[in-house]
Amino acid sequence: xxxxxxxxxIAHIDHGKSTLADRLLEKTGALSARELKxxxxxxxxxxxxxGITIKAQTARLHYKSKSQEEYIxxxxxxxxxxxxxxxxxxxxxxxxxxxxxxxASQGVEAxxxxxxxxxxxxxxxxxxxxxxxxxxxxNPDLALEQLESIIGIKREEAILASAKKxxxxxxxxxxxxxxxxxxxxxxxxxxxALIIDSWFDNYRGVVILxxxxxxxxxxxxxxxxxxxxxxxxVEELGYLTPKPRKTDCLSAGEVGYIIAGIREIKNxxxxxxxxxxxxxxxxxLPGFREAKPMVFCGMFPSGKTxxxxxxxxxxxxxxxxxxxxxxxxNSPALGMGFRCGFLGLLHRxxxxxxxxxxxxxxxxxxxxxxxxxxxxMNNEVIxxxxxxxxxxxxxxxKIEEPMIxxxxxxxxxxxxxxxxxxxxxxxAQKKMEYISSHKIFLTYxxxxxxxxxxxxxxxxxxSRGYASMDYEFAExxxxxxxxxxxxxxxxxxxxxxxxxxxxxxYQVGRALVEKxxxxxxxxxxxxxxxxxxxxxxxxxxVIKSYRKDVLAKLYGGDYTRKMxxxxxxxxxxxxxxxxxxxxxPQEAFMxxxxxx
Length: 596
Description:
six-stranded mixed sheet, 34% strand, 25% helix, single chain, alpha+beta, Rossmann fold, Elongation Factor Tu (Ef-tu), domain 3, 5 domains, Alpha-Beta Plaits
């Protein structure tokens, strides 16, 4: 065990952690030159397209130090975007140390701070790495100054590196061996292994990735999953290099995978403890904190996809991403589907794309919204995740909305635009301080529903990409909120309903009906689009119908023949309006995202 090191790489998005992971794999010979490619631990097409890490990946590296001693380094990569902080917490639970990567051209960012606090909560030893020193705009001295003043780590502890060119990688590997402590645990104690990830294999069932804390596990061992009290026999053990390699035994301190013919997806819960059936551990390991969804939307099957296909896809995806939640929902407009909960807007977008690509399902998803707490007149408190669940106004005593504490780092020259954006989103300033000569750290209290749509892109726009943000849930707070209904031909479409602030209801309703008039295609009958608060219509647009030329076949005769055909067409249009169904495209449900 003294020659094992478990570490992760933590950083703000786009600070070069995937590139650094590539160099570590290359230097330790984990993959051949033919197998190496850029961002090798980013295995999904989506990760490569968007340039972000979504899933935490692991790799076992074999390293010979300068003292000619052999070491096993278990690298656990982590995502950098705020929506995937749950993935980061899972990775850190399996480690004793971490590489804190900071971009030399951008310095300390909001997510750098958030991940540092997460690491310190897990008692991890941090090795700061100032990356991208080869860039012309790099300023390593400023990054080192921020490391000392903001994070509180001495500049002498930092390693200057360029992951792209391989500079400083040897020094990083030596630091991992020297500074990060070996794992603690007893090889002869009863088996205790923490499930840090799991995924579904169509041929082998559920594959679970574990960090062994105590004891040993061998092929053929009868194991118990302590939370679900399920028993299985180990069929195969192995570790990832990042390619899977079989082994006969995993012992304390090691990270590897277990295949045990687990077919019930719900049994292999991330954060559960694996122990031996005949030599049980007395108590389970502390699992991860439960991820609380912050953003909700409806997902409904369309085209050839059946509800059952979507349910199976959601079940398999949830196994791989335990921070995502879903429950059945029935919509009069869209039929049977599921109400899904996510950690943020990017998380929602990634889940939808993964469902469509990996499971080949066709979806219609509704505009995202947040959860609210409603106190009824009889003092009953309910949580609602869908505007259609909101009781009638005469039953409501008060509505409380979730508030978040946002931490924003911005260069001082963009401060005016950032402050204006925060004020427009009903933000309340808690703190503003200079953390370096040109960088300001803002702490604001904001309603979650104000940032969940396009806030992140607006922040990047007003700061030209230099501002960064992290946030955490703060509290529920009472607010004057109303339900905004969208009616098509005087019939409310529950999937298009919103809960908005009273002062913004008219602008949002007006903008939404104008947007939908452009999106919904013309049909054989006239379509009336209305925005309403209760019984009061606050905005209206009309989409004119197609009109067939029924007079084309007439070549003369009395004008009454012409009137007869026009009246017949009019009656048909009226009947069609009553029984015809308006086709609403997917874009209409996402129109809210495009409202400025």
